[in-house]
Amino acid sequence: MSEVDGRHGDTDGEGVSIMAGEHGVAALTDGRPDDGERDRPYVVVSVTTSVDGRVTFAPDRLLMLEPHSSAWRALGGESADRVQAARAADLEREHPHQATLEGSGSLVPPDAGPVGGLDPVPPEERDALYADHLPEAVVARPGRTKWFTVVDGRGRVRWTMKSVGEFDVLVLASRATPIEYLGYLRREGICYLVAGEERVDLAAALRRMRERLGVTTLVSTAGGGLNGALLRAGLVDELDLVVLPTAIGGAGTPTVFDGPVLPEGATPAALRLRSVRVEDDGVLRLRYLVERADAGR
Ligand SMILES: NC(=O)c1ccc[n+]([C@@H]2O[C@H](COP(=O)([O-])OP(=O)(O)OC[C@H]3O[C@@H](n4cnc5c(N)ncnc54)[C@H](OP(=O)(O)O)[C@@H]3O)[C@@H](O)[C@H]2O)c1
């Protein structure tokens, strides 16, 4: 059913796909602009949203936890499962990526503070902890094909697993991250990069991922806080949305892009439609290229 398998603009008994170049959808010569000048990974934002843009039910309902994950899945039913599986396969094929990205907000509730009860760090060891921690044993681990990257500038996530299947955890921290937390990550053998003073400098962190770890493509499956910050920093190249036929509402409920409001005089990011997939039950897949990644700042 995927729109990249050659059946463009057709009905296949389960839905309709319209590709770039058809039915008023802008023609593209290539889905992915040239990588040439980019000093950071190409960034695809890949999330599932209600028609009104919400990516969860309410600010404190993490979709990684039950009963919320099942309730969210029920909104889309079988066709959403199918479309999301096709999206994952397309991302692997079209954008082979070496990292995914989440924010701490996907893993801990909004009111969670820094991890407590950690060992103190002697003053003479503090400076060394602000250096990136990329132990060779992890970086060169056979079998890993992706980094499970998490922005956690406040040190809020206590890890129960640091490696799952093809994924190793990579934490993005800043110089404001509690030093005890960086010590904890080191003791646990968890990789981290330190970028930024007050909070994680996303542009610098992404550049470092490319330079130090060879990450040329990254798929952000984050919530609105992190994706909004990426958008404002001009770091989003492509958007791959699955839209569920539901409206959730609720001011403050995370959306596809949150973060600071658009500054006076700034232009919103311009998007160019790549393709549309319409399922019979109203589930959509919408793919856009960001035409001006620096817009909206
Ligand atoms: N439907 C979906 O596809 C989907 C996908 C993902 C998540 N979700 C849901 O969305 C909710 C979480 O969304 P959320 O918006 O609360 O959390 P979020 O997207 O994780 O946003 C918070 C994260 O963004 C970082 N951040 C925010 N602004 C930043 C900036 N200017 N510079 C650097 N970093 C910045 C924060 O850093 P610090 O850690 O340093 O504070 C934090 O890590 C959860 O309910 C989750 O289940 C849904």
Automatic annotation (TrEMBL):
This protein is called what? Answer: Bifunctional deaminase-reductase domain protein
Q: Which Pfam families match?
A: RibD_C
Q: Which domain of life is it from?
A: Bacteria
Q: In which pathway does this enzyme or protein participate?
A: Cofactor biosynthesis; riboflavin biosynthesis
**Under the GO molecular function aspect, what terms does this record hold?**
5-amino-6-(5-phosphoribosylamino)uracil reductase activity
Q: Which UniProt keywords apply?
A: NADP, Oxidoreductase
The residues forming a coiled coil are none
In its keyword annotation, does this UniProt entry include Iron-sulfur? no
